[in-house]
Amino acid sequence: LEAIKKNVSPAAEMPAPSPAAQGAARITSEQAPSPVARPGDGDLNVAMRNYYATIWSRIKGLWTIPQGILPRENIQAVVYAKILRDGTITNVGLEKRSGNRYFDDSALRTVKKANPLPPLPAELRESSIEIGIRFHSSEFK
After folding, report:
1. What is the pTM of this model?
2. Using an 8 Å Cβ cutoff, are 93 and 77 in contact?
């Protein structure tokens, strides 16, 4: 590990990874994230944007929360999860709490309820991806 660290240029250093892993995608209702572009990765970028949009749509469609527990101010929670090649969701947890236990529980339940998701795009060579999914209370107002 130390040898790898020495080979990384200082410009490439980033803050310590969060539980959702350094470089993990963030999925929100505003837009699907764009993977880091590399030459020749156009098809992969398109496939991943479509995949993120598909899974956010599915998760959002399952998300319910009683109006009575929503605070007046906008809050958000970030749920991290690992998605295996076949779409199985594992390692689900809270990366960022909203401060409202019921809201956080609702976000966690929703991700678990979405299991399994569609399989990862064929263009993606990795056996899994780690993502962070932002849940905004403003979605219900």
Report:
1. 0.70
2. no
